[in-house]
Amino acid sequence: MKVERTILIPVEGESQPCVDGQHYGVSIMQVNTAYKSRTGVGLLQQYSEEVASDAMGKFFQRTSEDNGKTWSEPTVIYEPVETKEGILRQGESALLLDEEKDAILHFYNLSLYPESRYTGDVGKFTRIFLRISRDGGKTFTEPEQIIQKGFDKENWARDVVYGRNNASISFCAPIITSKGKILLPTQKRPLETDSDNPFLIDLEAGCFIGEWTDEKIEWGLGEMVNIDSGISSRGIFEPTLAELMDGSILMICRGSNSTITDMPGYKWYCISKDGGWSWSEPSALTYHTGENFFSPSTGSRLIRNSKNGKLYWIGNILKKNPDKENPDGNRPRYPLQIAEVDERKIAIIKETVRVIEDRQEGDSPFVQLSNFRVYENRETHEFILTMARIQERSEKDLTSPAYQYRINMEGSDD
Fold first, then answer.
1. Quick check: helix, strand or coil at residue 68?
2. Interval 329-350: pLDDT, tens
3. Which among 166, 194, 195, 206 is placed 20 to 30 Å from 349, CA to CA?
4. Count of CB atoms within 10 A of residue 286's CB?
5. Which class does domain 2-408 fall in?
């Protein structure tokens, strides 16, 4: 495997205090990239400025006609809106090219921040919206809230009520199955939730299931999976999905051992045999040898390479350490690895684990190698991963450009 790192999107201007009053600097986040149509090498890219932890500022869009070699000047596509109740911010987002419809789907959270910065109350006022482009991103339809069939704008999905709880996307990479269904990975807060500590909420994971009816998408909501809070203090969340060779759906989720650090920090997986409507009980993701590995509370990604047909998992696996190998909640968020998935055993093939990026000399111990996006290059079949190295300078400084990593899986034994 060969990895080449460059700066894709620099940070402009000097670092400024963040809206939370505790940090400073801006990081370039959520660099979502999609091909503009079912053929060709034109790309659409959207990205945001993170102005505090879990708080986004402006969103930008640009295009490339030469497969990412050069880019157009970015244009602002969203700015936070001040209201009497607080600030409306776009949050986590995702792009998906539906090749059969030759349409780009743009999913995003829209949230009310009563105090401008992120607090637990934000989770009560978050909904998912969708825009659709049929001309390669030049224009989009008006945003429409995703609503489960049979529900309304307030009670917009099963056990989801605006002002009380939410379903949302986070670290989201939607997929389209071989049967043409759109699976939107989703996490949900329970209706009865104590928002005082948003980092100790028993989140549940699953997916919205979409199907085209004429020019609209009709949405259902599959079973939401939970886990005992004594095993994972924040439930399971930030699901990533892949269709396996046998047609079943694999879901790998983030967990957490925050406040219960005597418990192991794992990634958790479930299997669906019916397209995401129901799921097996969560199991800890292991190596194919049966050995456990430790992983901090971070998102991860499943992606299949169209050239070699192999399914890969990208995420954080902690190094062997005689002093402390188990994570402490979210930390440490390095190194970042890629590995092949054994689709029969549902496990990581140990000898295929390769490091994409690690903490470098001079990096802060708080550096985050975790908030990434990835797609496959149509021409070279490389994986193109983009990531902000948040807190690479110091704990308080969030400043980071968007780095690009070209990952060539050929010669993975090098």
1. coil
2. 999 999 999 999 999 999 999 9
3. 206
4. 18
5. mainly beta
